[in-house]
Structures are given as C-alpha cells and as structure tokens.
Amino acid sequence: MEVQLTNRQQHILWATVRHYIATAEPVGSKALVEEYDLGVSSATIRNVMGVLEKSGLLYQPHTSAGRVPSDSGYRIYVDQLITPSLRDITRMEVLAKETELTLQQRLHWEDWSLEALLQGAAQILATLSGCVSLITMPQTTTAILRHLQLMQIEAGRIMLIVVTDAYETHSKLMDLPPVREETQRDPEVIDRELQIVSNFLNTHLRGRSLLELGNLDWSQLDLEFQRYGEFLKSSVAELTRRTLAPAATQIMVRGVAEVLRQPEFSQLEQVKTIIHLLEEEQDQLWRLIFEEPEVEETGKQRVTVRIGAENPLEPIRTCTLISSTYRRGSVPVGSVGVLGPTRLDYESAIAVVASAADYLSEAFGYFNS
C-alpha cells in the first residue's frame, strides 16, 4: 500500500497502534499525550488522527469514541513502522533469542520423535505468542519437475502443463499477459514465443523440486519475455500448493482456548467458523500457510504477515496470520505460524515465528542426518 506519511503522522500512527494493541480500547489524543513523548499538543494529535482517518489508516467505532487502527493502518505499521528505533530492533532480537533458548531447553531432539517435537514446539509457540499456533507435519516427498509446456488454447488464453518425475500431469488455464501494443498479436508469433519460453524454462528448471521454484530469480528471463515472469511465478506456485497438499493434511494446533478469550472473539458464530476451519478444513489452511515467503538479502527467512481482509479464507478475515516455513537444506518442507486478532503484538509474533522456523529447520536436519 503506497501511502506517504510525514514523520509526525508516522509517529502518531505508531503510537496509536501501540496503545490500541496494549489496551484494546479506542485511542484518543489525550492518552497519546500522557503516555508518549510526541512533542506536540493534544489538538495537533487530533488533527493528525483526522488525516490518518481520511487516509483509511484509522477509524472510529462510533462517533464519540477514539480511533482504532484499520487493516491498512496495521499494514503500514508492519511494513514501515515496526522498527522505528534501535530500541525496537533490539527488542525483536531479544524476543527471537529468548524463543530459541526456550525451544532448546524444553525440547530434546535425541529423546523425542519428530511428531512429539513438533507438538511441543506448537505448545511453546502458542504460549509465547498468545495466539493459536499452527505447525504442519513435514512433506517427506517432493515432486521433481520433468517437463513444462506453455500452449496457446485460444485467443488470449494459454495453458501451463507441468509433468513431474512420477509422470503426474498438472495443468492450469490462464489469461495471456497483456502487451503494450494496441494491435492484436499474431497467434503464430505467440506460439513461437511460448515455445521459446518453454524451452528456456525447461533448460533452467528441469530436475528441480517444485518447492524450489518459489525461490528462483525470475528476472533471469530474457527482457523480451519478462512479461511472462510474474504470472508464471504465481501459476507455478499455485500448482505447487495443489500438488503438495497431502490427502490427510495434519496441522498441529495449540492455544485455541487462550486466544478465543480475546474481546475480538466475543461473537459465538465467529468462534464456530474459526474452530471449524482449524478442525475440519485444514487442507484449505495448509495451502495458505505453506506459501513460500521471500528471503532477505542477508539470507534470513522472512515471515508472511496477512492482516484481516488480506486473508482469502472467510473465517479468518478478521484475524492476522503470520507464517514461515521450515526447511531441509534450501527446500521448504513444512510451515509454522500463529493466528490471532489483528490487534496483535506484531513485533513479538514475527520474532517468535521466525525463530521457531529456524529452530525447526535445524531440528529437521538432525532427524534426516
């Protein structure tokens, strides 16, 4: 979301989110003056909060109330404001180290089975985050790409066909990426382009695990065909999620009772739909949390943070889902995440999930050594 905020607006949004996370009460200017050293008057804070409300980052639950962060406000907070000072960076590092230490002290690779280890990690993650924890059992088999083909089916429509090493075939229909020229492209030219791109991809991708494709640098495509890159990346990722979800998906779920005591979950029907998703529709949830996050330039695993309406599953569109993957070498084999209200201690939850994912990657390496 591209929203340009002044330093003052950033500080006041940051303080508003922090205060609301801590209190679960709509935030007024007086509370910010009393608890945060913002260096401005209450009237100035009210004016800035009004601007933030017009920008869709805050809203008023009712006329006489203070403001509450919107999903967009939380998104700005996570993407831009979560580490506004060295103090906050240090806090996240401390949380990550504390999580790692707790996992090491309470879990014992040498004496436990992998399933028992994951169950123990799920309970610790729920306790540390105050959220529902979600850890998937690892995928012990991975499909290897044998052949990929792009075919034009009709004007503006193409099919991606993937054949794995087990000679299983998977396909996906999609719209041809738009071109800048207004003139209609010659179908024969498109066929030749698709064949060239198919040959290029087979040369570079054949023999790779489907799980690896999410980490590839798709900018390697020749400039003439870069318009194919983004939709190919998303299409292959979707095919990967379809083909990898096991028939009997198992997700370790812990911490449901604790998180449902939060005021955001006071509606019985909402609670029922969330519990139904966690217990009866784990295949849908698996596809969502097993999506490959980006990797930072430092090589560290980054988490995926979905806030409110960013979640495609209706039962959790008022929640925040934070997830990452644990790996065997460079290949993701399972996922770890937390689910809670959008009013969430994001610094803590992100640090805990990232640290748990790193720990489980190390543990999985031990069990497969």
Automatic annotation (TrEMBL):
Claim: Magnesium is one of the keywords in the record: no
Alphabetically ordered keywords of this record: Repressor, Stress response, Transcription, Transcription regulation
GO process annotations (BP): negative regulation of DNA-templated transcription
Keyword hit for Cell wall biogenesis/degradation: no
InterPro entries the UniProt entry points to: GAF-like_dom_sf, HrcA, HrcA_C, WH-like_DNA-bd_sf, WH_DNA-bd_sf, WHTH_transcript_rep_HrcA_IDD
Gene Ontology MF term list: DNA binding
Pfam families: HrcA (PF01628)
Positions of the Heat-inducible transcription repressor HrcA C-terminal domain: 115-350
Family: Belongs to the HrcA family.
Record's function text: Negative regulator of class I heat shock genes (grpE-dnaK-dnaJ and groELS operons). Prevents heat-shock induction of these operons.
PANTHER family according to UniProt: HEAT-INDUCIBLE TRANSCRIPTION REPRESSOR HRCA
Name of this protein: Heat-inducible transcription repressor HrcA
Native species: Halotia branconii CENA392
Gene encoding the protein: hrcA
